[in-house]
Amino acid sequence: MNTTDNQKAINDFIDWVIEIKEFLCELLEAMYEELPVPKKKK
């Protein structure tokens, strides 16, 4: 593996992590909307 291959692998990995993060954020938002959220008492 030369430096270019390493850089490409790192870039691909970062892209993958970002995709997973965005997917998890959307999933959490969807779950949050489905759940009955208790109102905070002041």
Q: Can you describe this structure?
A:
By secondary structure, the protein is mostly helical. The protein has one domain (1-32). The chain has one helix and no strands. The N and C termini lie far apart (59 Å). The model has no long low-confidence stretch (mean pLDDT 89).
User: Shape, please?
Assistant: rod-shaped
Mind describing the biggest β-sheet?
none
Structural class, by secondary structure, is mainly alpha
**Count of all domains:** 1
Helix content: over 70%
What is the CA–CA distance across the termini? 59 Å
Low-pLDDT runs of 5+ residues are: none
- The average pLDDT is 89
Number of H/I helices: 1
Please state roughly what percent of the residues sit in beta strands, choosing from under 5%, 5-15%, 15-25%, 25-35%, 35-45% or over 45%.
Answer: under 5%
The ordered string of helix (H) and strand (E) elements is H
- What's the count of strands? 0
Key features?
single chain, 0% strand, mainly alpha
Task: Summarize, please.
The chain is mainly alpha-helical and 42 residues long. Helix content is 76%, strand content 0%. The chain starts with a helix and ends in an 8-residue tail after the last helix.
Blueprint (SSEs and pairs):
Layout: H1 3-34
